[in-house]
Amino acid sequence: MNSFLFNHIKFQIASLTILLILEVIYFLRPKIRLLSNRIFTVLMVSSLCYLLFDFATIFALVYYDYVPLWFVRFTHQGFILFLDIALSSIYLYIDILNREQKRYSRTELTLIIGSYIVVLASIIFAPMEYYIEEDGIYSYGLMANCVYAVLIIYSGMTVFQTLRHIKNKAHRKQKICVLMTMALWIGFGGVQIIEPRILISSVGISAIILLMFLSLENPSEYLDSETHAFNYYALKTVLQEYLSRRKEYAIVSMELDEATIIENYTSNNVISEVLIEIKNFVEKNFRTPCYRMNRMTLAFIIDNKKIARLDPYLEILADRFSRQWELKDRSVRLNAHANVLCCPEDFPFDGNVIELLDFAEDSETYGRSIGFVRRIDEKAREKRIRRRQILHVVSDAIKNDSIEMYFQPIYCLAEKKFTNAEALVRLKDSESIGYISPEEFIPLAERKGMIMPLSNLIFNHVFSFMSDNSLRRKGMNHIEVNLSGLQSVDANLPKLMKSLLMKYNIAPDCVNLEITESIAVTSGYMLKKNMEELKKFGCSFSMDDFGTGYSNLSRIAKADFEMIKIDKSLLWPCFKEDGTEGTKNAKILLENMISMLLKIGRKIVVEGIETKEQFDYLESLGITYAQGFYFSKPLPEKEFLKFIEEKNC
Length: 649
Description:
Elements: H1 3-28, H2 35-62, H3 69-98, H4 106-125, E1 129-133, E2 136-140, H5 142-164, H6 172-194, H7 201-216, H8 232-245, E3 249-256, H9 259-265, H10 270-286, E4 291-294, E5 297-302, H11 310-321, E6 325-326, E7 331-332, E8 336-343, H12 353-361, E9 373-375, H13 378-400, E10 404-412, E11 417-429, E12 434-436, H14 438-447, H15 451-469, E13 478-482, H16 485-488, H17 493-503, E14 511-516, H18 517-522, H19 525-537, E15 540-546, H20 553-558, E16 563-566, H21 568-571, H22 581-599, E17 603-606, H23 612-621, E18 625-626, E19 635-636, H24 637-647
Parallel strand pairs: 8-9, 11-13, 13-14, 14-15, 15-16, 16-17, 17-18
Antiparallel strand pairs: 1-2, 3-5, 3-8, 4-5, 6-7, 10-11, 10-18, 10-19, 11-12
């Protein structure tokens, strides 16, 4: 090889070697269908073309006297064209990641296309000069200056977009990597501008692609290690783009109904084998990627181009699931069903991707039909709309401090007066859905990460009310306040409670914290630690909703609850049809439960008392406190104060 030629292509050879390895890895591995992936594919192809034209420009200048002038200019035009495409692809790729796959508007697309037209015009019409001497070869002139301008503009825009979103913690590491690669690229480009005889721009673009590939196009981030299907994060990312495209699509999720039973009678990895077989079948027959939505569920997406084939696809799927699946060492017949969610019919384009996934995964979303295919009915759509409205109300209540506190009096049988009360939060949207039950908005607030600020708001309202109205002087021994599941195991709970009690100058024994039976039974070390610390401070605890299905008597005997609140579901069956076998059994259960709790030294509150007959019966059993509509419904603050002043006088 001509030594003069080799000296000028050694950087290009190294760069091409790195790029070819990356190209092979990139195009052989599985990829999710994202706009950012398509742009990265353009970047990979344009960078390869750019390097090939870089070789061609050096060859044309080394053999300038032997090749036609049009060839020399053509090689430089191709070099600049693909360099511009590569640089703009880097910018667009980073920008799309920052935009969370949201597509460009028509105005933005017009500006992008306009920039390409300007560059193309300069490539076609701008003059180019060539420097060919023993100390080096390079090109210069207006066309070369366009390259430098493109380098500066796109590099600056990429850095700007990255810095603009750097506070987003979810992708901070990747964005720091982008800044590092851009600094590297600007460094190489700067050297090329200052000393054009050193042809190292190819090294710069290979380096930035390598670092972007390793940090931003990491396949393990999107793959489920067990089944090699795409994971939940990949599904979330893809659906974000589908929402922004505003074109109809369908999510089909295949859920195994008896997977746990299968695992109990076979090896531990049988579910993985089954899911792999299902994944392979879907990808082979429907030519679409599979996603692992959760442990027992795989999903795939039918886009707008294939949506007309949805019903035939479902028929193929139902037929396949009706037959056995052949695994490595066994045959398995699966009980399963396919949930189908069509957008925008079942979910609007302006919705949130997390809300969409919650809606798609919720078993109550789909009809209760026995068949393989289950679709969303009108009732489920109405429920989704109501959930969105409730979340909006909760968000506004937190933002504007617009919750309402109600208090339900609790009657003490020993003192023959109302000594306690339960604080109950109420939310109201006067414009649309009216009052909202805590049974609706509390679980939603927990799922959406709103429960902590909402709970803190409740405590501030209750403690302020207690302080301003000197409830202890009015005969109130304590107010019961519910703890959410998340708050009960929050390490900051003792510190928060102590600071609030000191802020409002309230004695700790004026506060009783209610924890539902399900939380008390399933929570572990952190709940116990919080209870111990707050009890030392002076607060007391009661177990709420006792008897709702999680009862663990040995745990209750050990737990440090002063009071047990028996749920109305244990009381009401005792008075449904007096004299029947069911009523007798319900009374035996309730009477023995109350007797047992009293013997181990617990105070007992029975909720849901609505008649004198119920109260007299419970009084004969020796309960400590009584709560229910027989005494009073939950009352707003002013009515509650009036009630206890009248009843306790």
